[in-house]
Structures are given as C-alpha cells and as structure tokens.
Fold these 2 entries.
Entry 1:
Amino acid sequence: MRPAPMLACLTMKADQSQLFDTHVHLDRLGPDQDSATALAEAGRAGVGAWLVPGVRRQHWPDLLSLAGAPRIWAAPGLHPMMAGQWGAAAEVELAELLQRPECVAVGEIGLDGLLDVPFQLQEPAFRGQLRLAVAAGKPVLIHCRRAWGELLAILRQEQAGRVGGILHGFGGSPRIASEALELGFVIAFGGPLTYPNARKRVEVLRTLPVEAIVLETDAPDLPPHPHRKEPNRPEWLPLIARRVAEIRGWSLAETARITTANARRVLNLQKEWGQN
Ligand SMILES: [Zn+2]
C-alpha cells in the first residue's frame, strides 16, 4: 500500500526534542494502522525521525516509497530468516539501492541461532550484505540472537568497523556490548527494556557510554509494557524513552537530545537533517 501524503505536523522542522525511531517496520504495521496515520500519531507523541529496515526482497520498493517523505529513511536488506533470497540478483539490486541518498543503511542483517534457517545459508547472506554496506560506506542494522561469537568474528573479518551501525533488539551481555562498541556500533533499546524482568538490558544500559545509546520500537513487534499483548505502535516510542531516562537519570528532553544526536551521527545524517 502506498503511504498517503504526509500530514502538516511532519513537515515542521525537526527540533532536538524529537525522538528518533531507529527501527520501525512502517511497511508492515498492525491491521488497524496505515503508515500515514501511524506517523501522524507518533509525531504527536514527540517522534520526529524514522528508519525503516528491510526484511524481504519483495518489500524493498515499499521502503523506498516510505523513505521519500521528510525524515524517513530506508535500510534495505534481508533479515536472516530470508537468507534464502540472497544471490546474484539480490546483490545487484541492493547495490543499486545503496546509491540512493534515502537508503542510509543496510538492514536488518545478521545471524539468528533460533531460526530454522541453517548458518550455511545465513552466513553468506550476512557477509555479502556487509560487504556491500562497507563498499557503499553505509552503516548496518544488526539482528542477532544466540550467535554473538560468530557475528562479532564476521564483523571483524569484513571490516564492519569502517561503517559501524546499530545493534537492534540487543539482548546480549555488557561484555558483548563493549566489544561491539569498539567496532563502532551503538545499541538500540526497545520495548523489552520496559519489561519488569529486563535485568540484563538495564545493566547494559547503565554501563554504556552516553554516545552509544539509541531508541527503537521495532513496531509492530516487541511492544513495550503495558501493551505486551497488542501489536506494537510507533507512537509508543516515548514509553521506551521514559524508561531510558529513568535508568540513566536523565530528563526526557535530555534523553531525546542524546539519542537523536547519536542516531544522526551513526547514520551519517548530520547534513541531510534539514533537507530530507
Ligand atoms: Zn525488526
């Protein structure tokens, strides 16, 4: 479905108090949300910028049509569950997409040890996409579960530190977080941080340097507390920001300023901010 024209609130100049949702699937929200309504609601809630990651190849055109709007960017790529779609044709198409200014990153890519897809398929898809990202000078959005040793080794081998990126849905240890930081990555906090049993994520958030923290909803997945039984919505990013603020002892305005500045830095959006 093509997104409707953006509403007036989205064309206002972004200010530093606005939140940046670094991982939101605007192209596949819940049944009661179209992307234009979701963006307007998120805008009213204080969200001012969005990065839409790819999952499967046939949805890449949807990412592009969304990313034509102000302060919406795309990160085309293949999720590890779609690793079977990787091959010569996908590689050519992705390389072409990465020439476009609105495609600011490659995502969501990585390794997932909980999927039914063998690593023999996942690894070449991950490496191939990483290589394109490094060659294009664009950062990557990483999805990783139960495969951190392999993933960090591949990031090093493929020199991912030259572009850096964001660890999405991070559920690893503080040690893994600090290894990723050394490679130029930052860590996105989403709905799971708000759960009462989020001990590990809270510990990671407490120990991170200020410049390594960004926010994400992953809508329609990973809804924050108290909405865990519903599809996640982009307008709930402030619930996550509030929890980050509590844990770090920041005001909500500081949280927005810090995390938005971090997202812009890692995604190389310093100049484009005013123009897109
Ligand atoms: Zn995602």
Entry 2:
Amino acid sequence: MYNFKIKSIVHDYGVQFIDDTQGVLLKELKEGDVIIIDNKIKELYKDLLQPVLDLYWHIGIDASEKVKSYQGVMPIIESLIDNGFRKNHRLIAIGGGITQDATAFIASIMYRGVDWYFFPTSLLAQGDSCIGSKTSINFNQYKNQLGGFYPPNQIFINLEFLDTLSLWDLKSGMGEMCHYFIVSGEEDFTRFKNEYAQALTDKKVLAGIINRSLEIKKGYIERDEFDKNERLVFNYGHSFGHAIESLTNYRIPHGIAVSYGMDMANFVSVKLGYIDNSVRQNIRELLKQVWEGTSITDISLDKFTVALSKDKKNVGKTLGLILNKGYGKIFKDLRPMDEQFVGWLNEYFTNELN
Ligand SMILES: NC(=O)c1ccc[n+]([C@@H]2O[C@H](COP(=O)([O-])OP(=O)(O)OC[C@H]3O[C@@H](n4cnc5c(N)ncnc54)[C@H](O)[C@@H]3O)[C@@H](O)[C@H]2O)c1
Ligand SMILES: [Zn+2]
C-alpha cells in the first residue's frame, strides 16, 4: 500500500492508504478529539463506525455547499466551544471535499489553529483535494471566496468507501484527476486514458491512479504551496468549469464540469495554433467518457461570458486562461474577451456539444 509525506510551509503531513478504517480510528484517536462526519457516511457505514462513534463525540453534517459558509460553520464552532473542545484536541473529518473544506476552515481558525486528521470518502477528495492545504468556504453565492492554507496532520485513504459513491461522483473524481495527468505529460495521460475504464471497476488499478494523481500534485504544491506560480496550471479546465458549475446550479459535478472545461481550453488552444487538432481529439476521446450522459446545452452564451469574466485569474478585463501547448505544456495565457473569442465560444456551444 502507498504511504508518503508531503512537505508544507505550515507543517509536513503524511498520506497513508489503509484498509481498516475502524482499526485506524480506534488506534489514533485520543480523549477529547471530535469527529466531523458527513451524515451520509455515518448512515452508510454504521456498523463500521459505530464502535468509534460510541467512544468519541461527533458532529454530523449534511454535505451541501451551504455548510461551507459562515452560517454553516457557526453551529459547528458553537457546539465545539460549548462542549469543551480545547486547543490540544483534534478534529477528525470523515467525508468528501465539503466535509474537508468545512473542517479545515474551522481547524485553521479555532484557537489560532488545532490539529486535524482527514479520512476522505469521495474519489475527488482521495485523488485530489485531500492534499494541497487549501481551506475554503463560500460567501453568499460566490464559491470558495474565503479561506487559507491549513493542511491536516495526517490523511488516511481507504478505497472501500468508494463502493457507495454514485457513478456521477465517481466520474467527477476521474475528471478532476485527469487534469493532473495532462499537466504531467503524454506518458501519464496515455496511462490514464488506457486505464480509465478498468479503474472504474478494479480497485487496484484505481489505487494506482489515485496515488499517481497525488504524486503529480505533490511535486507542484511542494514548490508552490500558496498557488502563486507553478501550481496555477492546475486551474486547467477550471475557468470554464466553474462557469459551467454555477450556470447549471451545480447540477454538473465539479470534475465533470472541469472535463468540459479542459475540452474548451483545448478548443481555444487549437484556434490559437498552440496545439494540433489531433491532440485535442485524443484528449477529447477520454473526456467524453467522463461527461457522457450529461448535457450543458441549456447554458446561454451571454451568461457564460459574464461568468467567465468574473474568474479570479482575470487581470482587469483580460481573461487569465490556462491553455494547452501540448501534454506537459499547460500554461497561463492572457486573452481579451473580444469578438473573436466570443465567436469561438459560440462555435463551441453550437457544434461541439454532441
Ligand atoms: N480544498 C481543496 O483543495 C478542494 C479541491 C477541490 C474541491 N474542493 C471542494 O470539494 C467539494 C467537492 O468535493 P466532493 O465531490 O468530495 O464533495 P462532497 O463532499 O459533497 O461529496 C460529494 C457527494 O458524495 C457524497 N459522498 C461522499 N463520500 C461518499 C461515499 N463514500 N459514499 C456515498 N456518498 C458519498 C456526499 O455526501 C455528497 O453528496 C467542493 O465544495 C469543492 O469546492 C476543495
Ligand atoms: Zn478542481
């Protein structure tokens, strides 16, 4: 099983693949620790978790974006303070990216920082968000506006949790991991493409993909933890993806929206002569498998351009896009939102979504 360390400016932390979640929890937890758990996981894994929940106090949360807000974290903080949670106690998050973000945000601000452990249960959290130390909550309707960098002290990954994940959340995790493999290079992308179908049914193959995804991300976050330079390329597919997520009211899960987003970035890259159409088509063959069964044809071009113009990476009125000059050559490009660019988007929405 895989086991490695991540260097962080905040504090180094470890990632360990495990197969006995109950045993690890019983061994690692100490008096005073509090578990913050996705209610769905609590219900689905009752038998496995009950011996632990009997011994340690826990707070169940409904994993919706609403939890990731001031209003959402307030009752959790209130309950921690009311029940004697102290600086030397730890928070134990069990759930997907939402449980992670809410717990990490609370851990980072409570008593100027308390230790926390993370047991990711979604593929997106296992193969991507669990490392990298970002903590985010939403503000009003705007996503991930508030937060900082505060990694857990230890991450325990058990792929058995994925048995109960919906096909859409599984595909979302695959789509999200895919962008690391394209950023890494042709060899990694080809491996991902070849193993995609098998990974959905074979845990050994999937574990290899998750481990490689984290390994690629690790290289970047250790060099640019605070997302100022090299790490920015991981926004590949995300400017377009975030616009798709918000304009479909999050009906399209993050990693699937990012898959459409990567194809849009590649489409623009072909238009600009950065890559050959054959590269785009080779990647699209894989991306189509991720998004197949979903539709985004109801998005209006006008709303899409407005959403794109709000992206965090923009500089003034210029779009900060992450584009493609080939496998392993993803880069940040500044593009005006001019008639030509809007024309390309129009062409994409008219011809490329079937
Ligand atoms: N901090 C970061 O670096 C980072 C990176 C990427 C995404 N995110 C955030 O993560 C969130 C998306 O992550 P996510 O997709 O894991 O969200 P999530 O926590 O909402 O999980 C997705 C859905 O799957 C359910 N679920 C989780 N594990 C399950 C399991 N084992 N079996 C059955 N159902 C399960 C959840 O209840 C939820 O309905 C977003 O809020 C995004 O902003 C954070
Ligand atoms: Zn993402």
